[in-house]
């Protein structure tokens, strides 16, 4: 499990490891960001429902990851996401 | 002709470019410019349907990956929420960008050279009970009485003690929130309060905020959080840098 925070010269450094921050990422992508007026938008499935399902799936996934399951899927997503700190 | 455009972000550059097949389902991501800004998009030909959670997670990862790439390339961006598709052709998108230009440029100015950081502070109330009780004479008194009186009276005092302790712990949590919030606010350009999340076990979230900070401010923030985390009663979770999702809404 990644450390929750890293200390260096007594200044806490923010973390971006996917395993530790996936929920933070979902909170932002699904609930935040620019939005358009409803009359301009094509509804993509049911995004609020997708959000709920995803968050539920992540909660389950975090448990599975703790037990070492789903590591292949994790690797696949990691290679796609390329979350590099600026 | 496409039926719409999936929107990843707005950038503050005029750049009709192709970012390659890096979008959702390997869609080719392009930029469409209007005036002094551009939208990072991929054309959508038909209705979009997500089959399952694993697939939707891949889509979310792809959305984030494109936003990150644009962020790296163009420095100042306004990210869209996941799943935003504008109806119509390129012209419709340009009309929207023209209409919203002032608002978008203003938002862009607010987030320039800054990134978003998440800060969460936790405590374990059960570990702090003794300190809280010892700091309040009336609570100490009630505790003593709840332990020392005859059975019926002790029960009554026990109930009063539990109620008073609960109120005091809530008061303490609110006070800690206020103190931490004020300290954090002083270090950053902007701050938004997020929902407190319920956690399993004894650990409780005291504060959940998103902060907009430049490079200098984030060092100050890290310094402050290090100090807060040094106290044995609190733990700190500090995440980022994120694209400024929390600072581009209405």
Describe what this molecule looks like in 3D.
The complex is a heterodimer of chains A (86) and B (250). Chain A is mainly α and 86 residues long. Chain A contains three helices and two strands, in the order ββααα. In chain A, α1 (18-31) runs antiparallel to α2. In chain B, β2 (18-20) and β3 (29-34) form a beta hairpin. Chain B has 250 residues and is α+β, with helices and mostly antiparallel strands. The longest helix of chain B has 37 residues, at 151-187. Chain B is elongated and about 80 Å long. Chain B has two domains: 4-111; 115-129 and 165-247, ACT domain (Alpha-Beta Plaits). The mean pLDDT of chain B is 89. Chain B has six helices and ten strands. In chain B, strands 1, 2, 3, 4, 5 and 6 form a six-stranded antiparallel beta sheet that branches. Chain B has a four-stranded antiparallel beta sheet with strand order 8-9-7-10. Classes of the chains: A mainly alpha (86), B alpha+beta (250).
Q: How far do the termini of chain B sit from each other?
A: 31 Å
Topology as H/E string of chain B? Answer: EEEEHEEHEHHHEEHE
Q: How much of the polypeptide of chain B forms β-strand, as a percent range?
A: 25-35%
The multimeric state of the shown protein is heterodimer
**How many distinct beta strands of chain B?**
10
Please outline what is shown here.
The complex is a heterodimer of chains A (86) and B (250). Chain A contains three helices and two strands; from the N terminus they run E-E-H-H-H.
